[in-house]
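Entry type: protein chain
Record version: 2
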Amino acid sequence: MLPAALVLALALIAPSNAADRDVLVDLYKATGGTNWTTNTGWGSSSDMCTWFGVQCVKDGYGTHVESISLSGNNLKGPIVPALGDLKYLRTLDLSSNSLEAGLPDIFTRLNKLQFLRLNNNALSGGLPPVFQNFSAPYPNLQEIQLQYNKLTGAIPETMFGPSTEPPFAPKHALKVLNLSLIHI
């Protein structure tokens, strides 16, 4: 019989693994995962951290997806809104695929996101009204690559930070914003 503390710890860790795994499976299904160039491990019972293009981080609360890098891997379809549930995600690279539809409004939920590479797809519509959660102590987004898509509309002012900041607010980290060859 397991001690109660161990059972509680296992119960707390399991949901983060299952929740992140479910998001990855949603991405796999929504983007034609069976037809990806490389889909090693995806959708199987193996550890999600061994799936092609996925990197994880482990902490006292479990294992979490930290990076998804599937550039040039024949993904087709929409970007799944569930990606916004990956609270530890630092890198999202789905560039050079055939992703279409609009950009989901998920980026304010991804407080740790540093690198967003969605360039060279067929994404359409406008940019989300907010790309970063500026109420987070240190917005981390350093790179936004959206070039070579079918995006239209205005660039939201919030991409460059809040209109007013407290006197000792940290500097924002955005270093690269590439919107070339889109219709903005």
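Comment: Strands lie at 54-59, 62-69, 76-77, 91-93, 98-101, 115-117, 122-125, 143-145, 150-151, 176-178.
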